[in-house]
Amino acid sequence: MAALTPYTYIQCPCSDSPTLGRPSDASSPTSPEPDEDDRTFDPRAPRSNYSLYPLEYLLYCEDCHQIRCPRCVAEEIVTYYCPNCLFEVPSSNLKSEGNRCTRSCFQCPICIGPLAVTSVETKPDPSLLAAPDNTATPHSGPYALTCSYCNWTSTEVGIKFDKPNGIHAQLAKLRNGGATRMTAKERKERRKDPAFRAAAAAAIGSREQEDLDLETQFANLKMFYQNQLAHPNSADTGLSGLGDLGFSSPTSLSRIMSLYTGGGLQDKKAKSRVGAMREALDPDEGFQLASLDESAAIAQLQAETLDDTASAAQLLDQPPNIGEEHLYGRGRFASELRPIPYLLRTKRSKRCPMCRHIISKPEAKVQTTRFRIRLIAGSYIPSIAIRPLAISSGSSASGPAVPGALLEPLKPAHYLLTFKNPIFEPVKVTLGAPSKTPGRFASKVTVLCPDFEIDANTDVWDEALRETGERDREKERRRRRGEDGNHNNNNNHNQLEVGKIWERGRNWVSIVVEVVPASLALVAGQGPLREDEDVLEIPMFVRVEWEGDAGGDEVGSAPGGDKEVREKRELAYWCVLGLGRIRQ
Amino acid sequence: MSSRRPPRGEYIETDTGNKVARKATLVGTQNIILGGKTVIQPDVMIRGDLVRTIQPASQSATGAAPNNTAVSIGRYCFLSRGCCLRPPGRLYKGAFTYMPLRIGDHVFVGPASVVQAASIGSHVHIGAKVAIGEFAIVKDYVRILDGTVVPPHMVIPSFSIVAGQPARLIGEVPEGGHEAFELRDLYRTVGNNPQPTPV
A6, A288, A531, B90: which is deepest, by most CB within 10 A? Predict the structure, then answer.
């Protein structure tokens, strides 16, 4: 079993449905659940899955004085960029080209590794082997995309490129197998050609089908239905009663088309019209016979192994290919997968959902990693570090000396919680933890010192001078140790005493939590041990109080006017301390 | 701890604050540049001998002194036990040549990892047993989890968390996670006179 490093997760207040993370307001009606305040937070409740975050993931709104989590902030996209070539993509391109990189950035369809453009090595002709200028032109076409991780190359699906650049545009014109695909414009031009018309007329007689790809079929269908709407065939009005609901009615058709083509086709006149329209009849109108003959695919399945079929993940990674011939029966085999253009990534700014203030905003440029605004919770609320505490002097008490070791059931263990104050004011911390952890296996929890004060994080110079004044620092450290009468190596001097702080530093305080892990022995009738049910998790309510400057905001309770007025602030939240696994 | 320490000191501490283990294998030291305050643990190998053999056309044309740096490492980097830094090599104009490996500041390389990247940015955490393929580019604030295999020529943009074989993006570094990449405190905890981890 994997060792568990102790963790602290903090619950974002946005998951409290009655308050929805608003600052508590005395005038507002109380929550519908009267026992809301008395209820102990259960870290194992299914709802908690979505509200617990490590401190690093949390932001803080300075106006609402509230923690904000990734789930409750409103995100706004600042920049789109390709994760491979790191070029910024303007949002106007995004509308026309889609959310993928249109340069030559591709991922391997088999293993998602990056693909590189390489020239296809043409096997030298034996007769030309003696030719001296064999290596004169090492970089000449054709080119292929190759994966340096799994050695897949696009020649496996029969795709080769004439030029080493503009791969995305070239690939759009290529079908698997190397056959070129006509763009809609080319198709239209071909139709005007009299020679082609004559051939097409002959083909209709012989019932030969022209293969339409998705893009052309859609374009043909759209054109056909637009014509139908413009000139409704008044002759066939057989089902006028049902006509308004059926697929062939002009009203429902114009509604559907406005859905798929962006509303430009909404025809006011069509509403008054009643009557059915005919459906597409030939490929020029977008008619495509379904090929229901799957014998080729079945034969291939029989001939190949499971490894040759595409996995669900591989199919999901495939971009929609509008050059595909048919929607049905596509890409079931790994040999049919196409290179994946890189999905674009974004830089996003984040807003507070309540006051709409920006709480995180990165620089717009792709290459810079700076932030214009970055209000992280870690610089407002104390961090909590957990460390197992081994006490040799205590006869009964013992803890896992090695971090990550299993907790012995029914044997008291001690943990050191270190609270570090990030703000420039001294804070008063009040902890509340249930005496028994919620859940099927209730462990006993005792917070030895639930009420303490942490000094301010004022002495910025201390940290800066640490590097240069190595000796001074050592002296200071010794002094501090002497004062507190404890040394890391002889912790035995410290007595576990209720209501007493274990250790104290410049802006941190350590306290001891005693736990008696529950026995995981299953009583008859109980279900089996669920996943991670052996992890000892303590819900703890943290209340932080401090006196801050009354910033010029109206949110605070202190009335404005006096600049020197000190405002009492408090912040309270649930957090979960994951201490370790209990031995089964 | 103090009893196990060899009398001469396990590390050589340079004027610029580098702490290089005596048991580290540095090949071609004249081609390795350390920015200072970098920790090199025992059994680390840096292949400074794999120096560029073909100079870029612009430099050879001007007749400037050839740049012989094979590996350059910034400040506050931490190379854990048993890792290997190796400049990447490839065919260039028909001949094989190595290219320099550049590493920024505050880069942690986990134990038993092999790095053959073209460049690694600043504030990068590379876990244990990671293989970074040739000419990979890792930007700033990237976390590469244990056991990852980064394919050659892969680009990992800033604020990515990657894992898997081959590496794939599994998450983004949150806004509050930037400080975790700082290696100043870790730097103090090793050396001939290690300091305890500050709280």
Answer: A288
Boundary-marking domain end, from A234, A266, A285 = A285
Range of the domain at B140: 11-57+66-188
pLDDT-based confidence at residue A194 (cuts at 50, 70, 90):
low
The answer to whether B90 faces chain A, any CB pair under 8 Å, is no
A 10 A CB-CB count for A1 gives: 7
pLDDT of A219 above 70: yes
B15 touches chain A (CB under 8 A): no
Q: What is the DSSP letter of B123?
A: S
Give the nearest chain A residue to B178 (CA atoms): A56
Joined together, the tokens standing for residue A116 give: 């590189």
Instruction: Tell me if chain B has a CB within 8 Å of the CB of A56.
Output: yes
DSSP B26-39: EESGGGEEEEES-E
What is the rounded CA–CA span in Å between residue A119 and residue A154?
11
Which residues on chain A are in Cβ contact (under 8 Å) with B199? 385, 418, 420, 505, 508, 510
- Mutation test of the interface with chain A: which of B132, B161, B169, B175, choosing the one with the most A Cβ atoms within 10 A? B175
**Strand bridging mode B137-138 / B155-156:** parallel
The answer to whether residue B167 scores a pLDDT higher than 60 is yes
Task: Give the CA distances from residue B57 to residues A11, B51, B87, B92, in Å, rounded to whole numbers and listed in that order.
Answer: 58, 16, 20, 11
CATH of the domain at B75: 2.160.10.10
Quote the CA–CA distance of A388 and A407 in Å, as a whole number: 10
CA of A421, closest CA in chain B: separation in Å?
A: 11
What does the pLDDT average to over A361-383?
91
Rounded Cα distance between A361 and A567, Å, is 28
Kindly report the length of chain B.
199
* Residue A374 contacts B where some CB pair is shorter than 8 Å: yes
Q: How many domains does chain B have?
A: 1
Distance of CA A529 to the CA centre of its chain: 30
Please name the helix (run of DSSP H) or strand (run of DSSP E) that holds residue A571, with its range, or none. Answer: strand A566-581
A420 contacts in chain B (CB < 8 Å): 199
Neighbours of A445 (CB within 10 A): 22
How many structural domains compose chain A? Answer: 2
Beta strand A59-61 with A66-68 is: antiparallel
Q: Predicted ipTM?
A: 0.88
Mutate to test the interface with A, among B13, B135, B183, B199 (most CBs of A within 10 A): B199
Indicate whether A552 belongs to any domain.
Answer: yes
Alpha-carbon distance A415 to A577, whole Å? 11
Higher pLDDT among residues A207 and A251, named by residue: A251
Range of the domain at A274: 210-285
* Residue pointed to by tokens 């590493």: B103
Cβ contacts of A366 on chain B, cutoff 8 Å:
157
∠ Cα A406 A411 A414 (to 5°): 75
* Cβ separation A55–B176 shorter than 8 A: yes
Shortest CA distance to A432 belongs to which of A535, A568, A574, A571?
A574
Which stretch of A238-242, A538-542, B143-147, B157-161 has the lowest confidence by average pLDDT? A238-242
Record the tokens describing residue A435, joined without a space. Answer: 């005496």
B199–A58 CB contact, under 8 Å? no
Taking the CA of residue B46 and the nearest CA in chain A, the distance in Å comes to 24
How many angstroms separate the CA atoms of A280 and A219, rounded?
13
Contact (Cβ atoms closer than 8 angstroms) between residue A170 and residue A163: yes
Q: Tell me, what's the pLDDT at A137?
A: 47
B186 three-state secondary structure = helix
| B170 near A CB under 8 A | no
Residue A125 falls inside a structural domain = no
Residue B133 touches partner A, C-beta closer than 8 Å:
yes
Distance CA A320, CA B28 (A): 51
Alpha-carbon dihedral angle through residues A343, A345, A351, A356, given to the nearest 10 degrees: -60
Interface touch A510/B149, C-beta < 8 Å: no
